[in-house]
Automatic annotation (TrEMBL):
EC number: 4.1.3.38
Listed name of the protein: aminodeoxychorismate lyase
Catalytic reaction annotation: 4-amino-4-deoxychorismate = 4-aminobenzoate + pyruvate + H(+)
Residue ranges crossing the lipid bilayer per the database entry: none
InterPro entries for this protein: Aminodeoxychorismate_lyase_IV, Aminotrans_IV, Aminotrans_IV_CS, Aminotransferase-like, BCAT-like_C, BCAT-like_N, Class-IV_PLP-Dep_Aminotrnsfr
Biological pathway: Cofactor biosynthesis; tetrahydrofolate biosynthesis; 4-aminobenzoate from chorismate: step 2/2
Taxonomy of the source species: Bacteria, Bacillati, Actinomycetota, Actinomycetes, Kitasatosporales
Keywords from the UniProt entry: Folate biosynthesis, Lyase, Pyridoxal phosphate
Swiss-Prot/TrEMBL cofactor(s): pyridoxal 5'-phosphate
Molecular function GO labels: lyase activity
Record's subunit section: Homodimer.
Top-rank taxon, per record: Bacteria
Pfam family, one: Aminotran_4
Length: 270
């Protein structure tokens, strides 16, 4: 496997960035995950926009998006596969052993790994930890993902593929790597960005294409919603057939099934 590190392609087994990279030592970095289907990168411009926004939010130097485009194309070309997860990581670079950033400039790594297609439905659990809707990093896709790693491990230990967080005021927020939608009285709702969730690209497309409403939702909605689904780059729209102990028979329900159909049709044209 070949990946891109700071200006050129390298072999994955021997590629290096500094062991004192601020991304490694303190999680000072931002990233994007894109879907590459037979070499076609889905929604590249939207991902690059969000990467630049996250970098700005974290005070990193403005990323060179032309270089990142070249890097993505080179990595995709060098590693042909049916369905790939392309990851762009942009970090603070070689830095002293503290929170202050060094002056060597950022590091850029673009890597790819093959993934399988996600099942059409999945189980989720809720976790007792909260997303902070007012934090300095809220809404930024930073590499500080340890909380998500922990919550996802809990989900896996309970036979689920995703964990859902509330925010600090007990409102439904998002998953470790996905946004959440619920169907109430036949209408689709998703938490607003003010809930502290990431501005998911799939979320944005799903809202645009299905007319879903952005609504502040209590966690209890997971007990009463007619249907629930997740969105993310690798899941697209994925129905939820179990939340904690609650089974949702007949998944995907009619509204989710329609949303999946509309999403697949529109995404193919993007
Ligand atoms: N929330 C979080 C915390 C995520 O990591 C992701 C995955 N990037 C999402 C939501 C979904 O975003 P997207 O649709 O852009 O993949």
């Amino acid at each position: 496997m070949k990946l891109w590190v700071n200006g050129g392609l390298q072999d994955q087994d021997t590629a290096t960035v500094s062991v004192l990279d601020h991304g490694l030592t303190v999680g000072d970095g931002v990233f994007e995950t894109l879907k590459a289907e037979n070499g076609r990168l889905f929604a590249l411009d939207l991902h690059l926009d969000r990467l630049a926004r996250s970098a700005r939010g974290l005070g990193l130097p403005e990323p060179d998006l032309d270089e990142i485009r070249r890097a993505c194309a080179a990595v995709v070309d060098a590693n042909p596969m049916r369905l790939g997860r392309l990851r762009i990581t942009y970090t603070g670079g070689l830095s002293p052993l503290g929170s202050e950033r060094g002056d060597t400039g950022p590091s850029l790594v673009v890597a790819i790994g093959e993934v399988g297609r996600r099942p059409d439905s999945t189980a989720v659990v809720t976790v007792p930890w909260t997303r902070n809707e007012r934090g300095a990093l809220t809404g930024l896709k930073t590499t500080s993902y340890a909380e998500n790693v922990l919550a996802l491990a809990r989900a896996h230990s309970q036979g689920a593929s995703e964990a859902l967080f509330a925010n600090t005021v007990g409102r439904l927020c998002e998953g470790t790597g996905s946004n959440v939608f619920v169907v109430l009285d036949g209408r689709i709702h998703t938490p607003p960005l003010t809930s502290g969730c990431l501005a998911g690209i799939t979320r944005r497309l799903a809202v645009e294409w299905t007319g879903a409403q952005e609504t502040d939702l209590p966690m209890g909605v997971l007990d009463s919603a007619e249907e629930i689904f997740l969105t993310s780059t690798l899941r697209d729209i994925q129905a939820v057939h179990r939340v904690d102990a609650r089974e949702l028979p007949g998944t995907p329900g009619p509204v989710t099934a329609k949303a999946m159909e509309v999403f697949a049709e529109r995404a193919a044209l993007l």
